[in-house]
Design goal:
The complex is a heterotrimer. Chain A is an alpha/beta fold. Helix content of chain A is 36%, strand content 24%. In chain A, helix 6 links the parallel strand 7 (169-173) and strand 8 (201-205). The longest helix of chain A has 17 residues, at 181-197. Chain C contains 17 helices and four strands. In chain C, the strands form two sheets. A two-stranded antiparallel sheet of chain C has the order 1-2. In chain C, strands 3-4 form a two-stranded antiparallel ribbon. The chains are: A alpha/beta, B mainly alpha, C mainly alpha.
Chain lengths: 254, 343, 399
């Protein structure tokens, strides 16, 4: 029994069957990648996991509880954090404030009406935010406005924000899309380190095969809304069905 | 039955005004993505175009009346409009009498010009700014425009009558087989409704059957793609702004005999027209027209004595109530597209 | 001090000083001089300055922090006013119960309006609030006349019950008071040709404003305030960080509604009358103008904006042709006439034209309002000074 169990999930947009009949089991403390060509339904699947979309059929269980019908913030409070394709951070706020918000969410739940105390006098929250900034090697940037960070730093910040909630499952949506090679490698190292050092499960949707094969312990290949195969990276590499699905795209996988 | 027909008719003229203003608002919003709080001011300026023309036509000079003297023994003077000198008295008088319909010709170039200046001079700098900024700057512009009109025309309503031929009323009761005098409807309101129908039809025909309209409709659906095709969409959108301004202006011109224009009439109509747009569905032209007439008629029904007895004051708030209910149950409005203005 | 950092403390002290010394600051011209008519230091205006300051401070907590643009806040001010006047009619002319009930009732009303309106965002939210406010206005004018007095409005009458107050003698008018201290009572100080008026009502309103301002600083600096800024910055991220944006925005909406109610209650405390027109949507527009003009999202901006608009309204609308002629009398006749012709539309009754233009200019060029403008000028000045120092050959020691 995995920490995330997706059973018979289907989703239709008008005439388009975006997800056919998806079954997926993500084992606890593993790194599981979901790959597939454009339009395979990767993003739709992800959105069904975090509450942005509600599937037409099937069930999604996280740690024995159904996530369906819950709002994104409720699903997050269950222990699922999401990293977006383009970094979603609080651009108008400082880096430290960005890091403090998930710490408050962890401590106080989805709403807290503390309108009187100064935010900096919440010592425990400040401390854990600063601690996470150090882990992310961003302590020197704590006073910067988040929107002025480089793309790579925004990504680090976003991952750090998700981690500071101590989620049990971290979902990443093409975390290296549009990144330069050096930034991509940094992100891979960061994610490796996270999965080694923390008690966390990582599910990653990715286009870049280099990233997938450097990180994943298990890979699900999605094509036209249904899972094609699920196996270890070594077995996936030479799989004929995968080659078929990726025809024309395999070159980038080398 | 006759009462119902009367209320529907009563709702039509106000509904026509709502529909025309909402049509322009939606055109601007759909093409340019701008929320224009100054659109009511354009309606108001249109009305004052009619005032201006009727004043221009009535410009007079004094002429001595032959054979008559006043009590001091000086020759009796009377004002004679210049237009009498040009066209003779009979034609001149007719022209003055028909000044409101004639103002249509006068208002079109004026309104289109104002629309161009507004779009090129101000609005275009706000395409990429947040909707809140667009609301704020056009709100400021609306204040400025109405204050300018107030400066030149004063704060009091200026009666601007319809041509004498249209001042009577039409007895629908007699025609439709009810008792005479049960459904009496002023001729000018019929004219206004017909006029609104023609304008709305023209705008839709223009968008439907011309290449220009096709490009604009495509742009409303997907601006970026149309831009990628190498079509200069911005220029067309400028023209659309001019057209929207002209539609609002004409709605104002023809409305003057129904309601004497004053400087704040634009704001009064704007708030309601916005509600109309939202009910119809942001970005949907048929929705705007439909909602305009629907709400106009609904408002008129709510003003019936029988209704007011049960629900006092409902006529004052019915439009807002409908808007609130619609927004909460059908956030996209009656005919709105998905994703418009939703964050 | 007061749980604020040094910068905020300074700001608070500046506001305290400005409001306490307002009778001097607003009366710069000696009595009897040609400029005396531009003195703003009379009770009625000073009261309005601080009361609308409160209104704008509250509006800023909603708009400045969360970015939700409400076009209906005058409704809460109006509801607060009606509640206050009923307290004065039924209970006592003492302003304390009146003000308390106005905050409470406006808070409840804004809870209802906010709960519905906040189901939508962006322009839809603006229109919903506008619809609610217009509805309240229309109802106050028509059906609710028994409660609101309709077109004539409401004011305390001599034969109102007022169960806590003793009966008034015939011919005596009910006056708003604070435990006997009448709002209208003033002390006049004469200093040479200058006359300064210290009005009880003004000082009570000013103290309330200072408290309201202090509270808004605390809210801005609190975790709650940070969450509100996060709502404005990226609501999606907030949701996916396990935080529910709705109760945050609703709380902000209700707090700002209560501020509006407080302002409405104070207005009644000062001039004991209320009419539906203060709920009209242009009144809602005015508080938007104040907040943006001063600087939305800044602490001091709304106070400055409210003060600036109310004060300028007073000054500019008093300038007439005669005054202009006096001012430009030194010029040759032709030029004088020309200048007067140009300036005239913008003054006197043309104040709204000036306001509209000013507002447009601020939105176009200074989205941060007067506060941002001030910072820019200050920054320019400092940079110039710094470069001057360099050219002087003086070097500043490295930090």
């Amino acid at each position: 029994m995995g920490i995330l169990e997706v059973k018979n999930v289907g989703k239709r947009f008008g005439g388009l069957q975006a997800l056919g009949d998806v079954n997926l089991s993500v084992a606890e403390r593993s790194v599981h990648a979901i790959i597939g060509p454009n339009g395979a339904g990767k993003s739709t699947l992800l959105n069904c996991l975090v509450g942005k979309l509600i599937p037409d059929t099937g069930s999604v269980m996280f740690d024995g509880q159904s996530v369906l019908g819950r709002k994104p913030h409720q699903i997050n409070q269950m222990g699922i954090s999401r990293v977006f394709q383009t970094p979603e951070i609080f651009g108008d706020l400082s880096v430290l404030e960005n890091m403090m918000i998930p710490c408050f969410a962890k401590r106080d739940g989805s709403f807290g009406l503390n309108a009187i105390t100064n935010v900096m006098s919440e010592k425990d929250v400040v401390a854990s935010a600063e601690h996470m900034l150090e882990d992310m090697n961003m302590a020197d940037k704590r006073e910067m406005q988040a929107s002025s960070l480089s793309r790579g730093d925004k990504r680090r910040l976003e991952i750090g924000m998700c981690l500071s909630q101590q989620p049990r499952l971290l979902l990443l949506d093409e975390p290296t899309a549009g990144m330069a090679r050096a930034d991509t490698n940094n992100t891979i190292d960061l994610l490796k380190q996270i999965s080694d050092e923390r008690d966390i499960t990582i599910a990653i949707i990715e286009h870049d095969m280099h990233v997938v094969f450097s990180l994943a312990q298990r890979i699900t290949v999605l094509a036209q809304g249904t899972p094609l195969v699920e196996d270890t990276p070594d077995n996936i590499k030479g799989h004929p069905k995968v080659r078929e699905a990726y025809l024309g795209e395999t070159q980038t996988a080398a | 039955m006759d009462a119902i027909i009367l209320q529907i008719l009563n709702g039509l003229d106000k509904g026509s005004a709502y529909a025309l203003i909402a049509l322009g608002l939606t055109l601007i919003f759909g093409t340019l993505g701008v929320v224009n709080f100054a659109h009511g001011a354009l309606f108001m300026i249109g009305a004052f175009c009619a005032v201006t023309l009727s004043r221009l036509l009535s410009l007079s000079h004094e002429v001595a009346v032959e054979g008559e003297v006043d009590f001091l023994g000086n020759p009796m003077m009377k004002d004679v409009p210049y237009i009498y000198d040009i066209f003779g008295e009979a034609t001149g008088a007719a022209i003055i009498d028909w000044s409101v319909p004639l103002s249509i010709l006068f208002a079109i170039p004026v309104m289109v010009a104002i629309g161009f200046i507004m779009e090129r001079g101000l609005i275009q700098h706000f395409y990429k700014r947040p909707h809140a900024d667009q609301i704020l700057v056009t709100f400021g512009l609306a204040i400025v425009l109405q204050e300018i009109i107030k400066y030149f025309y004063g704060a009091n309503p200026i009666p601007t009558p319809a041509p004498a031929a249209f001042t009577g009323s039409f007895d629908f009761g007699a025609v439709l087989g009810f008792d005479p005098n049960t459904i009496i409807y002023p001729y000018w309101r019929l004219v206004y409704f017909a006029f609104a129908a023609i304008i709305i039809g023209a705008v839709f025909a223009f968008l439907q059957f011309t290449t220009f309209g096709m490009v604009v409709r495509a742009g409303m659906a997907d601006r970026e793609t149309v831009g990628l095709l190498g079509i200069n969409i911005d220029k067309r959108f400028t023209i659309m702004f001019g057209i929207a301004a002209a539609v609002a202006g004409l709605a104002g011109v023809m409305y003057t005999p129904i309601n004497s224009p004053n400087y704040h009439m634009g704001m009064d109509f704007l708030v309601l027209s916005f509600v109309v747009v939202v009910v119809g569905g942001m970005g949907s032209l048929p929705g705007a027209v439909l909602a305009g007439f629907l709400l106009g008629v609904l408002e008129s029904f709510a003003s019936m004595g029988a209704v007011l007895e049960v629900l006092p004051g409902i006529n004052q708030i019915i439009i807002y109530l409908v808007a609130i209910v619609i927004l909460l149950t059908r956030p996209r409005g009656l005919m709105g597209r998905k994703g418009v203005m939703e964050e | 001090m007061f749980g604020l950092n040094s910068k905020d403390t300074k700001l608070l002290l500046v506001v305290i000083a400005l409001t306490m010394l307002a009778p001097f600051i607003l009366n710069p011209f000696p009595e009897g001089s040609a400029m005396a008519q531009f003195n703003g230091g009379y009770p009625d205006l000073m009261q309005r300055l601080v009361i609308f300051g409160i209104f704008a401070i509250g509006f800023n907590i909603l708009f400045g922090l969360t970015g939700y643009l409400s076009f209906g806040h005058a409704a809460f001010l109006g509801v607060g006013s009606y509640a206050a006047i009923w307290m004065m009619k039924l209970l006592t002319m003492n302003v304390i119960p009146a003000i308390m009930i106005s905050v409470l009732v406006a808070g409840l009303f804004s809870l209802l309006v906010g709960w519905i309106s906040l189901r939508r965002s962006g322009i839809y939210f603006s229109i919903l609030t506008l619809a609610f406010a217009q509805m309240s206005y229309s109802l106050a004018y028509s059906v609710l006349t028994p409660i609101t007095g309709g077109e004539t409005g409401l004011q305390p009458k001599i034969n109102d019950p007022r169960i806590l107050d003793g009966a008034l003698a015939a011919g005596e008018t009910p006056r708003a008071n604070l435990f006997g201290l009448e709002m209208g009572s003033s002390y006049e100080m004469t200093f040479g040709n200058w006359v300064f008026t210290f009005n009880a009502g003004y000082y009570i309103a000013a103290v309330v404003m200072i408290l309201a301002f202090y509270l808004s600083i605390r809210i801005f600096r609190s975790p709650f305030g940070m969450m509100l800024r996060a709502v404005k910055s990226n609501q999606q991220r907030l949701n996916y960080t396990g935080l529910n944006a709705k109760p945050y925005t609703l709380a902000a909406f209700v707090i700002s509604g209560m501020y509006a109610g407080l302002a409405g209650g104070l207005l009644v405390a000062m001039d004991t009358q209320v009419g539906a027109e203060r709920m009209f949507w242009t009144a809602s527009g005015e508080v938007v103008l104040m907040t943006i003009l001063g600087g939305a999202g800044t602490l001091i901006g709304p106070v400055l904006g409210a003060g600036f608009i109310k004060y300028m309204e007073n000054i500019v609308s008093k300038i007439n042709k005669t005054v202009l002629e006096q001012w430009f009398a030194f010029m040759p006749d032709g030029i004088e006439d020309f200048i007067i012709t140009i300036v005239y539309p913008f003054v006197g009754k043309g104040w709204h034209l000036t306001l509209g233009l000013l507002f447009m200019l601020v939105v176009i060029f200074l989205p941060g309002g007067l506060v941002q403008g001030g910072q820019k000028v200050f920054g320019l000045f400092r940079r110039k000074k710094a470069s001057d120092e360099k050219t002087d050959g003086k070097t500043t020691p490295a930090e």
